[in-house]
Amino acid sequence: MLWYHAVQPYMRNYQLFYCPDQKRLGPDYGMNVLCTGLDTARIGDASTCILIADVAPELLCAQANWPTGGADPAEWWANDRGNDLCLALNDNSYAGSGLQPPHNDGAIYGYADGHAKWDREERVDTVYHWNPLALPPK
Question: 77 near 32, Cβ under 8 Å?
Answer without folding.
Answer: yes
